[in-house]
Amino acid sequence: MTHAIQHLINNFLSVPRNFRNIQGNSFGFTPFDTNQLRQAQILSDNYFRISRENASDDPIAKVMEQAQQDAQQYDPELVRYALMVWIVHDPEARRRKLKIPPLGQRAPHITVPKLVNATPASGTPASGTPASGTPASGTPANPEPTTTDPPLTNLDWWREDPQLNEHHEHWHIVFPAFPANGVSKDREGENFAFMHRQMLARYDAERIAVGLQPVKPLSDFSERIPESYNPDNDLVYDADNDASTPNAHFTPRSVGKQLTDLAGNGPKISTLMNFRQQLLNGIGKTYGQDDKSANKFGNDLETTLHNTGHVLLTAARDPVFWRWHRHIDEVYSRWQNQQAPYNFSDAPPVVIKSTDIILAWKDKLLDTDKNGSADGWLSYAKQTFGGSNFDADVSSNPVVTNELQTKMKSRQFVWTEDDNSSQVINYLYPREYLYFFRVQNTSNQNVDITIRVFLAPEELVNSRVHWIELDKIKQTLKPNEKAVFSQNCDESVVIRKPAQKTSDEMDKTAITITKREETGGLSGDKEAEAFFCDCGWPFNLLLPRGTKQGFKYKLFVMITDGAKDTVKPKHSNVAPRKCGSLSFCGAQQWDELYPDARRMVRDVTIKLVDNFPDV
Fold it and tell me: Is the pLDDT of residue 156 over 60?
């Protein structure tokens, strides 16, 4: 029965390529419009109610029946959004392992990159060797770029990456701008600021690698915007050919356009200015220096200035999306910069040196010990990097590297909705690696620690907002222990689990019906390990692309006190099950606390120390 329901959900959530013309609904839906969000909340709350009240009488089928009725009365996109919020958060839907199909299956026309043959800028080709093979049939002979600004076309492949766009959409489903089933996710406002800042840091890393400057914030609302945007024809719908009216849907934008008031009750530029001024005026008054203010300022920023601006502006495919979010981050920074420097006074009694941070290629480790993956090559590392070698420089070891590598690959996307024609998609992929950390406990007691790993382009290390969080690992050290720890890059706390590595995993539901059958006999922690949740950064974009000649980055590792980092569970003494991306999504349980007591990347994004350490 669950399989049949999943198929029903898949079909209901699928969006035809020419959806708007078929439906005849010209007003469009955005999850950032206040009135539409209010209606979506009413619908999703009703789905939660139906599920609860019919717990013993096939609740999922009854919810789907109601959703189909709602789609006849309301904008089908609004209903789909409300249903997806319900799928993610409803206990019964989660118990039955119901999943939202990937964006590439639900709406390929808004997912598949328009520029399928993206090439790096002159002099800065992608790292690694391009994927070999003959281009698939169906590849457009003359793909049209999304913007008329040539340097920006070199990043079309990144802005239009299907997994990137799905991540952003799914985060806003996991964290809707309203309480889901009567509960708001813990520290949602703080997470909003953190997650989007991380997206910006990664985009800026890609920009400077192709010779562009970091994103300029769109802080002047009267500016004539130099970045154009040319969406794919499948995205364009404008019933009256007037971009100022609310029924405009992904209309093209030429160079020099300005933000304009929307007609009727639509957002006005003056509204944006008022929201911004209210937020800034509240710093030091409404918003103090405490943890609650970190969340409240983020919440208010998201639901006022951010959301209203997104009714006027578009999604991650558009270069201006990033300028808008850099301005949103700029406003959050105005509050955040009031925080005191972090002075490491609560650091645990441990020692780690730069030579204790060891990177190793996974393929090289396989050559060394094909069975090492069972324990993350920890046995090999303890013997090779620990013991009598604990203080040795191991940089000459053949498995060790001081660089990270990526390559551009390609895969075929099949338009199953139409005639099964195929299209080549270019995408980034990292050469897989492991971390090994050597850490010494200088005390005669057990010490819990959190190892936090960050990455930034060398030229941006003094910019607090440009440090990319790569991982954080919790460990326990025995008294006076000289320990060696390992961590596989595909276990990173920022990425979606399980890591989507193959073409099938990227373009199909990560947890397929076949996978569901394979794991049907599991329970408890093993089941959680098999499924996790669908929130998180895509594995293929774990690392910035860099350049073929090599682009310098700094890897920064800091260790915090694990005891002070630990959050007491809300409901029991048993720690909440982790989500796939602990950093971006927190705990699996919707009403559990975020499992890290520290401010989200506070230690890097606030002033760190009065003088930034030499990294």
Answer: yes
